[in-house]
Amino acid sequence: MKLKTIICLTLAVILAVSCLTGCRGIEDPVPASDPAGTKEPQVKPEEPVPAVPLSAVINAKALGFSAFDNQLVEYLKQAGRADENFTVSPLSFKAALTMAALGAEGETQAQLLEALGFKNLDELRAWYATVLAGVDGFKEYFEAMEKEAAEYASFFPGASEGQKITSAYWVVNSVWSNQDLPGEFRQSFLDDIAKTCYAEAYSAKAAELADAVNAWVNEKTNGLIPSILNDASETSAVLVNALYLKTGWDGGFYKLGDRDFTTRSGEKVQKPFMEQTSHMAYYKDDQTQLVSVPLQGGMSMVFVLGEDTGLAEKLAKAEYKLVDVTVPMFDVETSLDQKELVNYLKLMGCDRMFTDGAAEFDPLYTDSLYVEDIIQKAKVHIDEEGLEAAAVTAIIMVAESAEPGEPETPEIFLADQPFSFYILKNGESPELLFWGQIVN
To answer: Whole-angstrom Cα distance, residue 322 to residue 412?
Structure first.
């Protein structure tokens, strides 16, 4: 019998958004720190969550994003999360699966592409290119603002620099191999992910691999996700994708103090609220009330009260109005570590990648692999200064063996009851970076 080794393909896709006072501009990723020290390993429970019926994904309500995103949100609600505060990053999950698809072949690759909604690898690569283009667009936005500020200062040397916003957005990738175990990445795979995902390759000894990867993850998430690996001594390889974003609200919020929030069960609890009155996209009908709060750099955060079916269509119908927005400041953190993502993909028809002896990842590694587990950790924080969010997705594989007009009365958007939220990268086809709900 062949000796079975463990390989953890970890794709950490991290998105962090934060509005802070500081200097306006783009920050470069800082180098990875010493691996020793502050990492808290993520512990996976042994038992998976109860199975969810196939109808949870087949009959998922249309939010207006990709079918993959719509079905993932509905599936997680039915997987025991409907009455909890939670968040998930569809983008993180899809980016992780992108790396896996680039290293797959045959029916395994075909199932992955179909689940993701792509006909072939060319379409997948084109989608990932739009993710990277969003990074470039964000950088250009702030570079233009810096240039404008510099030109203004040259004409008015004594003028105050005013408030400055520190902003950053990067997508960085790395792959790691275990020097003490057999097997290695195929060069063709490394070339492909370098071209498509800008990934760099590293290696470490077995005893140092987890600390090295965790230090990289911690650094690229600004400490929001301190670790993703526990004991990696039997891990053959790790693939990591980190996405970081920090920006501010286009218009400022101010604190209101603690107010009542009615939970889904009807209980009233105290939460700190904030308020902003400004012109923004607003929509209301008998089932839905939503407002899209703009963020600098081509981002937005959509708050939804009531039914969110057909969200994209409703956003398209939204009118630019004066809106008084009152929402709670919150922190929400979710660990999807009970086979939720594995079960979701199986319901989507991706079963071959999880089957020992049937998974086809030969283009990725010199040993035969199949996926044992997929885990995601996600965090979202918002306050009057901005929002900060991060997500890490790990795929674990084992070897076989407007102009002023008439005065307006503002619309009122008061989220003092359960609501959902969407963090979007704006564009012709908005990309859903994070979804979440606050119900308690």
So the answer is: 9
3-state class (DSSP) for residue 372: strand
pLDDT of the chain, 440 residues: tens digit per residue: 333 333 343 333 333 333 333 333 333 333 333 333 333 434 344 444 446 777 777 777 777 788 899 899 889 988 888 888 998 888 888 888 988 899 999 999 999 999 999 999 999 999 999 988 987 888 887 788 777 766 655 555 554 444 455 777 777 778 888 788 778 889 999 999 889 988 888 888 989 988 888 888 888 888 888 887 787 777 777 777 777 777 788 888 999 999 999 999 899 999 999 999 999 999 999 999 999 999 888 889 999 999 888 888 898 899 999 999 999 999 988 888 888 988 999 999 999 988 988 989 899 889 887 887 888 888 888 889 888 888 888 887 777 764 455 667 888 888 889 988 888 888 777 888 888 888 88
- Going by the DSSP 8-state scheme, the letter that residue 349 receives in this structure is T
Give strand pairing partners of 244.
170
* Predicted TM-score of the model (pTM): 0.81
In order, the DSSP letters of 145-209 are HHHHHHHHHHH-TTS-----BEEEEEEEEEEEEETTSS--B-HHHHHHHHHHH-EEEEEE-HHHH
Q: CA 431, CA 299: separation in Å to the nearest integer?
A: 10
Instruction: Please report where in the chains the tokens 């993850």 appear, as a residue.
Output: 217
User: Of 398, 377, 379, 395, nearest to 41 (Cα)?
Assistant: 377
* Closest residue by Cα to residue 293 from 324, 316, 260, 262: 324
Report DSSP letters for 229-297, one per residue: -S--TTB-EEEEEEEEEE-BBSS--EEEEEEEEE-TTS-EEEEEEEEEEEEEEEEE-SSEEEEEEEETT
- DSSP letter at 354 equals G
Strands 288-295 and 369-382, bridge-based pairing: unpaired
What three-state secondary structure class fits 17?
coil
Maximum Cα interatomic distance, the chain, rounded to a whole number of Å: 80
Buried b (16+ CB within 10 A) or exposed e, 111-120: bbbebbebee
| Cα separations in angstroms, 140 against 9, 301, 304 | 33, 21, 30
Question: Nearest CA to 68 among 46, 91, 50?
Answer: 91
Domains of the chain with bracketed CATH: 6-26+67-155+163-248+331-399 (3.30.497.10), 254-328+404-438 (2.30.39.10)
